[in-house]
Give the backbone structure.
Amino acid sequence: MKHQNWIVGALSAIAFLAPAAAANPSDLPANLPSDLPADLPSDLPADLPPAPLNLTPEVIEQSPVLQRWIEAVPNVRVDIRNDPSFVTRLQVGYSYFPSSDGTSGFAVGIEDLFIAETPLTVSADYQQTFDGDRLTYGADLHYYVLPLGGYFNLAPTVGYRAAKSDNFYDINGANLGVRLRFVPSRTSAADITLDQSWIVGDSQGLSITQINFGYAVTQDLRLSTDLEWQSTASRGDSRVGINLEWAL
């Protein structure tokens, strides 16, 4: 029993003296590096900046992403939500009018020209048969109410539009409606757009429904297919279009 008490007492003394002994500089190991600075501060900040990238200027000049990250680390989440998942496009194409004896025509336009850094865009188009019996033209403003970088968006539409079909109707006035867009690829590789609007400036009125399927061929060149229906209370017309689109 006495031997056990002696051992416990000895261990307690060692535990008590150990911190003091470790703090004694004379007891430190003799093989520490000799090139340590003598005035090394003890209160170094925890948020030291990262070391610069060991890259050649040529590599940095060829990478806009690296240049941006070197200037400031971007907020990737905010960029993804607000960087548009669709682009401005110039269009030119061929149109076929099944309801007008299968005549052919052309269409030109611009889609989603952004106004500064806002969710407001302008679209304008002109389409007609080669014989001039049918034509439609106009310009619209779209205000996208959801984050521009999302896969889905919707926008109220307001603008002006005129439409003529043989001798059946000749309508023009304010164009009011809505646009729905689905973008499965943020790189503008493909998208589907549905536009529904009404020309309300005329007593007769005209409903216009258009579906556009767009898909990329290269980074700047796209193909799109239009399906469009125009209808009044007494007349319905249709159009199918194949367009080339240049991304701006």
